[in-house]
Amino acid sequence: MRKGAISPIADDIPSIFPIVASVLLFLGAVAYAGGVINERNNYLEIRKAGLGLSDVVLAKGYLGNDDFKSQCSVSYTEFAKRKSVKFFISLKKFCRYVDFSSAQNPFVPVTRYNGVPPNDYSVTGLVCPTSGVVGPSGPPTKNFQSLVFPVAVDCKADGSQKGLGVVTLVVWR
């Protein structure tokens, strides 16, 4: 042994600390990257489930009142269970009736609008599922997908008049 040396291992201890620190830093970076990848994959799975559910909802491009209510409890719920997501779907109808037999020209825009819709304009809506979707903690604040689509809807109960509807679909885990 040389003079002034403690032992062969004791002389190597100062060089071991940077090696251990660099290995820990590397493993931390790999773990962080894995977490980011998992979060992104989860988001993409939720997005894919939302687009799939929107395809089920808007398969025909037309939603009647009875279709929406019956499919809500059957097709939409089954699809969401298969994809293990929670969902909320609202259908808002914008039905404006224009009487073509009246003297008023329907193609002339309304020039004065005071914020109150005219009496021939109605907005109604349907919700699927009707209850028990959003828990006591409220709606999700992260990792959710919100989609909005136009659709043709029944404006009258007998289906004699069609109008514009907007489907809002929210999907989360």
Plain-language structure description:
Strands 1-4-5-2-3 form a five-stranded mixed β-sheet. The protein is rod-shaped, with a radius of gyration of 30 Å. It has one domain. Residues 111-116 have low confidence and may be disordered. The chain is of the alpha+beta class. It has helices at 8-57, 65-83; strands at 62-63, 86-96, 121-128, 144-154, 162-172. Helix content is 40%, strand content 25%. The N and C termini lie far apart (66 Å).
What is the rounded distance between the termini?
A: 66 Å
Relative helix content: 25-40%
What string, H for helix and E for strand, traces the elements in order? HEHEEEE
Shape, principal axes of CA atoms: rod-shaped
Count up the domains: 1
- Give the helix tally: 2
Cα-atom Rg, whole angstroms?
30 Å
What's the mean pLDDT score? Answer: 78
The residue ranges in which pLDDT falls below 50 over 5 or more consecutive positions are: 111-116
Strands of the largest sheet, in order across it? Answer: 1-4-5-2-3
Percent strand equals 15-25%
Biggest sheet features = 5 strands, mixed
Estimated structural class: alpha+beta
Q: Total strand count, please?
A: 5
